[in-house]
Design a protein that fits this description.
The complex is a heterotetramer of chains A (about 525), B (about 350), C (about 375) and D (about 150).
Chain A lengths: L3 E5 L8 E5 L4 E6 L5 H9 L2 H5 L7 E3 L2 E3 L4 H6 L2 E4 L11 H5 L6 E2 L4 H4 L5 E2 L1 H15 L14 H14 L5 E5 L7 H16 L3 E5 L3 H7 L2 E6 L2 E6 L6 H9 L11 H5 L5 E10 L6 E9 L3 E5 L6 H8 L5 E7 L2 E2 L6 H6 L1 E4 L3 H5 L6 H13 L3 E4 L4 E4 L1 H14 L16 H13 L5 E5 L7 H18 L2 E5 L3 H7 L2 E6 L2 E7 L4 H8 L1 H11 L1
Helix pairs in contact in A: 6-7, 10-20, 15-16, 15-17, 17-18
Chain B lengths: L1 H10 L1 H16 L7 H20 L1 H6 L8 H17 L4 H29 L4 H22 L19 E3 L14 E3 L3 E3 L1 H19 L1 H11 L1 H6 L4 H27 L1 E3 L8 H10 L9 H26 L4 H18 L8
Antiparallel strand pairs in B: 1-4, 2-3
Chain C lengths: L4 H11 L1 H17 L3 H20 L2 H5 L8 H18 L3 H29 L4 H23 L22 E3 L12 E4 L2 E4 H17 L3 H11 L1 H6 L4 H27 L1 E3 L3 H15 L9 H26 L2 H37 L5
Antiparallel strand pairs in C: 1-4, 2-3
Helix pairs in contact in C: 2-13, 3-8, 3-11, 3-12, 3-13, 5-6, 5-7, 5-11, 5-12, 6-7, 6-11, 9-11, 12-13, 12-14, 13-14
């Protein structure tokens, strides 16, 4: 088999990405969230979302032949296997059953003649044998008869990989952050198995945030940033620092937007103090966070996905089970009660815009005023001599119109349903909803996710302006470091549910990068120790 | 053309067909010697009788609890009120009011318990509601036999205990609400003004309620529970309130129904009463998670219109009673249509 | 994983709460009813033969994750239409029964396909949809049988037709095939008649289900039942598999209804099928099955316990309170109550599981 | 795939054939055994005083006096009819005639015993059955009160 070559030219999310991978080699793919890793893999794997959004540019070659997959099934046919972050396993089935899922070994019986191949009987013995072979190839300790629902998470991962191995055609295996959910020992076993697979001639694309792992096992390392390959490394000739800086390090002029005025800002007294906060938010667990936010500043919270930065805002807002002490403006904020922070003057813009942030089926006006109506009893008027208070339609309309104008929300009227608006305009409505509360402190989570460049600027400017004009404190949570650095005064980086460090926004980006990859430091400490 | 098309799309084919069908029935009626005025009067009376029970669907639909197939629970509360009122020998408007006053606290209690139950089974409300309704009716069958009611006009003559299947309210409070300001026009046309005023009053109160802080919160819970929670609304409490409200309206609704109908139907009487109410509000344009008072009014008129007109008109044409079949097909077909509409699945 | 004995017992009690309650109720009610043991055993044997097949037809959709198939009444309707035809043609005995099965099969397949397609449009609320679909099709059935038969579809036998000249009577006499299967070969043990042929058929069907679950199709169904998205992503045709499961269930319900009615001997033309669905579902749940898991032992245990309660309760009510009707209402309450409780438990458990699944996502530490 | 269709078609055909067989073998006929004097065309036959009729050698024989008739329902068209002519004391069998026959008409068949004994081809005649519609009897199964369709 000649070398697997792939070149590929795109733009916007991905631009002009070229790389090649030889048989039996492991390619490490690293990059920040949103750097384009998933998009790249989706293209490679023929996910329908690529076709739906107008296909891709460039060419992919496997074994020297040009390929273009229209569905994951075609990719599977061609020998591309992928293990996603989310498991694709049937919980009630055993490991063996999952490994051979929809490719079961069957034997003939007479009813097949009448009703077709789906009535073939399962060959349990053969299935078990195949599963054992695959597991042996991986060289892990996994019992084929174990039920997936009773497995520890590492075994689930092994089951998934074993499935790909069992597909005889698999020559290229994509592993998307396989070690993220594993314990140290499990991860070590997995890495060993990967090496073994590579020796068997299967090429692997390995995506991970744990740089040490990448350094340990990959033959080549590619760093993606903003949809471009920024550097290509050979592990022997590099170290963690240079990879980390390549990942996050946008060139220094990234800070040029900051004005003199920004530098002169002085922060007031502490308005929000967070002590020993833990939040049980699935996928974003916060373990032990201590923070102090000063009055009038824009405080940024950054970090890689899944490290818990989103959990902080949601936890304080009472949306997920949490504990610890949160003090706001001298008052202790009761946790686990969404009403409490709202009535104290804390508002939040959720990162899950369509899920939590908006009433998609309701008009714009209603979206904007609802929280203020519930929390502060505004936009109500008395009727029947004060007996009942009902919605004040006129006040609501005026309020909605005010924000539509102020935030340049593009819509037909304030009665238009939110679902019909674009992502950017929906985000503006989320902001309007928070502004309508007149908050003293505003949490904004991922304000620019999924909206176009123009809208991004408007949203960030609005936030900045709101902070300046109303002297309101803003806590902005974002995965995009540069965005944080362009608007915040101080930035905290969260890693593994804890604060890795708090730096002024003017600190060099490599320092942020190192904080984000704090796990790497720890690993290295352990190695040296 | 485009406007017609979009109108059809908005209203949905089944509703258009049903409306045209009803219109057709009214057009044909004079030709087959069915009196239109009598038919209209019948339709109106039945509209008034059933309207409140259809209105009872609104709060639960709005709060995202789905169609209230558990309406029999409210109806049972209403029946208890009605039976007690007769036992106390109360007559006229006083009797009806007493029935309601007794029924409402019971309905609140039932609704509260029912609401607690539904909060534990989010996502499976409709099927469970159906069977909770069914089993509560069956349970009450036992209770009707055992409850110590004594009034000779209600218990079985020979045994002296156990309530009868059908109890006449003639002599107590038959048409106590209906006859308020009602008038007769000609031989066939009767207009139950009181019942309409009462229905309008309830509609107005509902309209008002939906505009209060709680009502707004309830609608929001139905629209997006996560949004509501993030805005400081207690989702479970809103759902419970909606269920209580629905149950209370069911109780009031059955009393209105009985005073016009003239009989209290016990035992298996309330068993299937949820279905016409559900069908009516769906025909009126509601979906599984959105309903307005306009839906209630339109739906009840259309549905009851069909129920009134099919027996008389179709029977005159084909000399066969097909009303039963038409009723089953129309009402269940409508519910089926609503259930298979794609509704966005909310992430939890 | 090891559980302590205490945990095992409590797990057992929770899992089998419904059957245990029924056993206890029966222990109280049987002496009260003053029925002789022989009578009860004979009744149970007869009812086991009569009802098991109908209940078994519910298993496959449960396997495919579609919950209790309230749409089985569609199959029952198809079976009844077959029976009307053979009664009209005066085909008797086992031949008549087989012929009824054969002619109603295409109809059952058609109805099952339709039902499956509709349920695919209402994912996540299959049960309530199939429930309403049952009512809806009942209307259509009435339209066909009450107005179509004797009009569009010729019926020769005047004994079947209403006096107005078309439409089938409320009660159809199935004297021709009455007990034909039960009596094919039956024997007596200690004065109790055992319809061996029927039990053989039921036994064969149990084997079929066991075998079926070991085929590729059966495996696909279980996969689809547990996680549609995962099954779909590995290339299993999810929608088609779901439809097939409903088709099989409908056809089997059709046969079940024919077996049921050959035992009864008369057919309540417009009501038999509705009760069939309701009884079958209640029986299955009484046997300890849930909406997502049901086994063959559940079926037999359920049929026995449910029908024991059913036979005993009116007489128990009569002797206890002097009111037979009370017992009758009680058993109605039980039938519906069991379904309600089973549904609540299922939803509640699913709720809990979802929460637990969420917690397991918390990460490795 | 093609093979499967062929086999499916064969199975279907077999099922249809089987249905036809079931229809014929299972169809019920009403036979009326008529032990009366009869004149068919030129010939007259006299009914014996007392006969025993056995069909297919199964079941309890029908005992028919002269001038009487009896009724029986059978499945399928082909049968063997055995007639024993008994003496007056109803004990001695005086003669036995056994012959296969095919039922000729749907619905009612009037079978004349004397003509059968004499071997007349016209012994099987058509008869209009006057079937009274059965009483609307209550079905034997338990009904759940109120478990009817929703209103």
């Amino acid at each position: 088999m000649e070398g697997v070559g792939k070149s590929y030219f795109g733009n916007r999310v991905l631009a002009n990405v070229n790389f090649s991978l030889k048989k039996g080699q492991i390619l490490g793919l690293v990059g920040e969230n949103g750097a384009g890793k998933s998009t790249l893999m989706n293209i490679l794997f023929g996910m329908p979302v690529i076709q739906e959004t107008g296909g891709f540019e460039g060419k992919i070659y496997i074994d020297g032949k040009e390929v273009s997959f229209n569905s994951p099934f075609e990719a599977l046919e061609a020998g591309v296997g992928m293990v996603h972050q989310e498991f694709s396993l049937i919980p009630g089935f055993t490991a063996a059953e999952n490994i051979v899922l929809n490719r079961e070994s069957t034997t003939y019986n007479v009813l097949v003649e009448a009703f077709g191949d789906r009535l073939r009987t399962l060959d349990r013995v053969e299935i078990r044998k195949r599963a054992e072979t695959a597991i042996d190839t991986l060289n892990v300790d996994l019992h084929p008869d174990m039920c997936v629902s009773e497995m520890p998470v590492g075994h689930k991962q092994f089951t998934e990989i074993a499935r790909e191995i069992d597909k005889k055609r698999t020559r290229l295996l994509v592993l998307d952050e396989p070690t993220a959910v594993l314990t140290e020992t499990e991860a070590a076993i997995l890495l060993k198995s990967m090496k073994k697979l590579a020796d068997l001639g299967i090429s692997i694309i390995f995506i991970s945030h744990r740089l040490q792992e990448i350094l340990d096992i990959c033959d080549t390392i590619i760093v993606l940033r903003d949809g471009e390959v920024v550097r290509e490394f050979v592990p022997e000739k590099t170290d963690l620092m240079s990879i980390a800086s390549a990942m996050v390090g946008r060139s220094i002029q990234g800070q040029s937007q900051r004005t003199q005025e920004d530098a002169d800002r002085t922060s007031g007294e502490i308005i929000l103090r967070v002590e020993n906060l833990w939040v049980d938010m699935p996928g974003e667990t916060v373990r032990d966070v201590n923070l102090e936010v000063h009055k009038g500043e824009i405080f940024g919270i950054g970090g890689l996905a899944g490290q818990g930065k989103l959990g902080i805002g949601n936890g304080i807002m009472g949306l997920y089970p949490s504990g610890g002490t949160v003090t706001f403006d001298g008052d202790v904020v009761p946790l686990n009660d969404p009403m409490a922070p709202l009535s104290l003057g804390i508002a939040a813009v959720s990162e899950d815009r369509r899920g939590v942030g908006l009433l998609l089926e309701e008009p714009i006006a209603w979206n904007i005023i609802f929280t203020a109506l519930q929390v502060q009893n505004r936009y109500l008027r008395s009727i029947l001599g004060g007996l009942v208070r009902i919605r004040d339609a006129a006040a609501i309309r005026d309020c909605a119109k005010h924000y539509i104008q102020a935030l340049e929300i593009k819509c037909v009227s304030e009665r238009q349903r939110v679902v019909e608006l674009s992502g950017g305009n929906q985000q503006k409505i989320c902001l309007a909803k928070a502004f309508a509360l007149d908050p003293k402190l505003l949490f904004v989570a991922e304000p620019t996710r999924g909206i176009d460049v123009g809208a991004k600027k408007v949203v960030l400017d609005t936030l900045r302006e709101y902070n300046r004009k109303n002297r309101a404190t803003v806590v902005m949570i974002s995965s995009e470091l540069e965005e944080l650095r362009s608007i915040c005064d101080r930035i905290a980086i969260i890693d593994e549910g804890r604060v890795a460090g708090i730096l002024p926004a003017t600190a060099p980006s490599t320092e942020f990068g190192l904080l984000m990859l704090g796990k790497v430091q720890k690993t290295r400490e352990r190695v040296t120790a | 053309m485009g406007r017609i098309k979009s109108f059809i799309e908005a209203a949905g084919w089944p509703r258009i067909i049903i409306a045209l069908f009803l219109l057709g029935l009214f057009v044909i009626a004079p030709f087959v010697e069915v009196r239109v005025d009598a038919s209209i009067s019948d339709t109106l009376v039945r509209f008034g009788m059933n309207g409140v029970m259809v209105l009872a669907m609104v709060p639960m639909v709005q709060a995202g609890c789905g169609l209230n197939f558990g309406l029999p629970l409210g109806i049972i509360a209403g029946l208890l009120g009605a039976v007690t009122s007769v036992e106390l020998e109360l007559t006229g408007i006083l009797g009806v009011l007493a029935a309601m006053c007794i029924a409402i606290p019971i309905a609140v209690l039932f609704g509260w318990a029912y609401g607690l139950l539904l909060n534990r089974v989010k996502g499976g409300e409709m099927m469970i509601a159906t069977y909770v309704g069914f089993s509560s009716v069956a349970f009450m069958c036992i209770m009707w036999l055992l409850l110590p009611y004594k009034s000779p006009s209600m218990v079985w003559g020979y045994a002296g205990t156990g309530l009868r299947t059908t109890i006449s309210v003639d002599g107590y409070w038959i048409r106590a609400i209906s006859d308020f300001l009602s008038f007769q026009y000609g031989k066939y046309f009767y207009f139950p003004t009181g019942m309409f005023l009462f229905f309008a009053l309830l509609c107005f109160l509902m309209w008002l309620f939906m505009r209060t802080k709680i009502g707004t919160a309830m609608t929001t819970v139905g629209s997006n529970p996560d949004y509501a929670r993030a805005s400081g609304v207690n989702v479970d409490r809103m759902r419970t309130i909606s269920v209580i409200l629905s149950t209370v309206l069911g109780a009031v609704g059955i009393i209105v129904y009985e005073q016009s109908f003239g009989f209290i139907q016990l035992y298996m009487g309330p068993f299937t009463m949820a279905f016409p109410a559900v069908a009516a509000i769906l025909i009126g344009g509601a979906s599984v998670n959105k309903a307005t008072i306009l839906n209630v009014v339109i739906g009840t008129i259309l549905f009851q219109g069909i129920l009134t007109m099919t027996p008389s008109v179709i029977n005159s044409i084909v000399q066969t009673d097909m009303s039963e079949v038409v009723r089953i097909v129309v009402s269940n077909g409508m519910i089926l249509y609503a259930l298979t509409r794609v509704v966005k699945v909310k992430s939890r | 994983m090891k559980y302590s004995l205490r945990e095992q017992i409590s797990h057992f009690l929770v899992q089998y709460a419904v059957p245990i309650i029924f056993v206890l109720l029966s222990i109280v009610a049987i002496p009260l009813s003053r029925f002789s043991t022989e009578y009860l055993v004979q009744e149970m044997v007869a009812r086991l033969a009569r009802d098991s097949f109908l209940v078994l037809s519910l298993l496959i959709p449960i396997m495919a994750g579609m919950g209790l198939n309230f749409g089985m009444v569609l199959g029952a309707m198809a079976g009844e239409i077959g029976l009307i035809f053979i009664t009209d043609w005066n085909v008797m005995g086992v031949q008549g029964m087989l012929l009824a099965m054969i002619i109603s099969t295409p109809l059952a397949i058609l109805l099952g396909w339709m039902c499956g397609a509709i349920l695919n449009k209402a994912k996540g609320r299959e049960m309530v949809t199939s429930f309403i679909l049952g009512f809806f099709m009942n209307g259509v059935y009435q339209l066909v049988v009450l107005y179509g038969f004797g009009n569009i579809i010729p019926i020769k036998n005047p004994a079947l037709v209403l006096s107005r000249g078309f439409g089938i009577r409320n009660v159809t006499n199935l004297a021709g095939i009455r007990h034909c299967l039960d009596d094919l070969f039956s024997f007596n043990i200690m004065g109790i008649t055992i319809p061996a042929a029927t039990f053989l058929l039921i036994g064969a069907f149990c084997l079929f289900i066991t075998w079926f679950s070991r085929t590729k199709l059966g495996q696909d169904m279980r996969a689809v039942g547990q996680d549609q998205d995962v099954a779909g992503s590995t290339g299993i045709p999810v929608e088609r598999t779901r439809i097939i499961s409903i088709v099989i269930s409908t056809v089997l319900a059709c046969y079940g209804q024919i077996i049921f009615l050959q035992n009864i001997g008369t057919m309540n033309t417009y009501n038999s099928h509705e009760q069939a669905g309701m009884f079958a579902i209640a029986s299955l749940l009484v046997g300890g099955a849930s909406v997502s898991r049901a086994t063959i032992p559940n079926v037999f245990l359920g049929v026995i316990l449910f029908h024991l309660m059913f036979v005993v309760s009116p007489m128990a009510g009569k002797y206890l309170i002097g009111e037979a009707q009370l017992g009758e209402f009680f058993r109605v309450f039980i039938s519906y109550g069991v379904i309600a409780i089973a549904l609540v438990l299922y939803s509640w458990r699913r709720h809990k599981e979802r929460e637990r699944a969420r917690r397991s996502l918390r990460g490795a530490e | 795939m093609k093979r499967q269709y062929v086999i499916d078609a064969l199975i279907l055909a077999a099922l249809v054939a089987f249905s036809i067989f079931l229809y014929h073998s299972g169809k019920g006929y009403t036979l009326i055994f008529d032990n009366r004097n009869i004149t068919l065309g030129e010939k007259s036959y006299k009914a014996p005083e007392y006969v025993q009729v056995t069909l297919d050698g199964k079941g309890r024989p029908l005992e028919i006096m002269g001038g009487d008739r009896d009724i029986m329902t059978v499945m399928g068209k082909k049968h063997v009819l055995k007639v024993d002519i008994l003496s007056d004391d109803e004990e001695t069998v005086m003669a036995t005639i056994e012959r296969p026959f095919t039922v000729r008409y749907d619905g009612g068949n009037l079978l004349n015993i004397p003509a059968f004994l004499s071997g007349d081809a016209d012994w099987n005649q058509r008869i209009e059955l006057d079937i009274a519609p059965p009483k609307e009897e209550e079905p034997a199964q338990e009904a759940i009160p109120g478990a009817e369709k929703p209103k």
